[in-house]
Amino acid sequence: MRMVDDSLVTDTPDGPALLGSRCSDCAACTFPRQAGCPRCTGASMVDTPLARRGSLWTFTIQGFRPKEPYTGPEEFEPFAVGYVELPGQLLVETRLTESDPEALEIGMPMHVELVPFRTADDGAPVHTFAFAPDREVRA
Amino acid sequence: MTDGVAIVGIGMHRFGRTKGVSGRAQAVHAAREALRDAGLSFSDMQFGFGGSHSAGDADTLVSELGLTGLPFINVANGCATGGSALISADAAIRSGQHELGIVIGFDKHPRGAFNVDPAEHGIGSWYGETGMMVTTQFFGMKIQRYLHDHDIGSDVLALIAEKAFRNGALNPNAWRRDRLTAAEIAAATMISHPLTQYMYCSPGEGAVALVLCRADQARRYSDEPVFLKGAAFRSRRYGSFEVYAPWIAAERAESPTVQASQAAFEAAGIAPSEVDVAQIQDTESGAELMHMAETGLCEHGEQEHLIKAGDNEIEGRLPINTDGGCIANGEPVGASGLRQIYENALQLRGDAGAHQVPSRPHVGFTHVYGAPGISACTVLTR
């Protein structure tokens, strides 16, 4: 699968997860990976897969096609963006698979997926991460 | 060392779109107006600080203003550029290094939302490619959470923008001078739910310049000096929720505005309850709502009542954004923070004309906020 950036995700036994950093000294997490700890100012960060499930902390709907450097399709469909709280780790900014504001609610459970967001010049879909409401799994 | 700084000259080039006039030319106009206001010439200036996001380097304005050899430092701090330039000037005078100088902010942006290169913020290109490097999104997400946390109805967002256009209509230097009703604002194109087109400010053009001096020399240059009693600047802390953040910490911290405003009030020895007129960053109407509380001007959750009671109107108990704010004036990034100082200076001098707060204010407060999480605040008196 072609990703917009291969360093963002990693495989786990449960499926793909976002790849972040965790501070060996103070346990702070970041996404994506980084070398310095923003909390204790140390430099003992190690790679860590982030939780695959969390809850919606806030959201909005992107109502117009962003300017460059956005590379999504010319034909624009509004898409949702939000922050999902991954318990004990961090809040990650992410696209959401559900773009109807009436179907989104702060606190609702969500899980990570890899979704196509554009087509490369050779026709292959390029994927990025997104969070989907858990009810879509049950449906 | 000196214990005070005064603003003795103010100049402005009107905000909006001025076809055929470069941002630099607008800056020179504002500088000459500020110097004229103080009865001084550029050759009197001992230093300069200035900035622009996309209209050129401020230090090169000397080729038009005069090659006098003064130290002129470029300042760049996103939307807080003007506030940062002012704070730099305050320090230059307060330290005793200089006694008299100029601050200039200007800009000229193309139409539409800003587009920013993630690499300039230390973020991977994927962030922009997938459509997340968009300031308007952040504001939608931040106000959504804020309304949820403080149980505030989203109808206040249209009321805040309605006030901005009402005040802008009274201000000859404003860009948007047509009144819009809350119903028209609420029904406009949705940009980032729950914020519509007319709740956002637009990138624009304009320039502001200020002449500052030691407070004890102020009356040499002005019959109506405005004193910069407190000025403070802060960047974001671990756990605060700011723009262009691919992640935020699980633990919450206050915004840099909280620390900056507390420091400014503390330096001034003035309490937020003593403020007579305030200009606070209203990049969109949700920002005004949140910043009212973050600056200490009210409690979190109290805003809905204040707004609906008319307390923030020009005739109200706590007038906010009396010149129409960013929503009516647009945001030429480099000039925006200094516009707030200009407006408060007019208000404290009693020179604001149709948008003058009736009981001539004694204490003015300004707050400017910029990416990626910086805030500059001032407390001004007469």
Automatic annotation (TrEMBL), chain A:
InterPro entries: ChsH2_C (IPR002878), ChsH2_Znr (IPR022002), NA-bd_OB-fold (IPR012340), Thioester_dehydratase-like (IPR052513). It holds the Pfam family OB_ChsH2_C. Residues 17-43 form the ChsH2 rubredoxin-like zinc ribbon domain. Residues 49-113 form the ChsH2 C-terminal OB-fold domain. PANTHER family: BLR3430 PROTEIN (PTHR34075:SF5). This is Putative OB-fold protein. It comes from Saccharopolyspora gloriosae.
TrEMBL record, chain B:
Keywords: Transferase. This is Acetyl-CoA acetyltransferase. It holds the Pfam family Thiolase_C_1. Transmembrane segments: none annotated. The lineage of its organism: Bacteria, Bacillati, Actinomycetota, Actinomycetes, Pseudonocardiales. SUPFAM superfamilies: Thiolase-like. One of its GO terms (molecular function) is acyltransferase activity, transferring groups other than amino-acyl groups. InterPro entries: Thiolase (IPR002155), Thiolase-like (IPR016039), Thiolase_C_2 (IPR055140). Residues 255-380 form the Thiolase C-terminal domain.
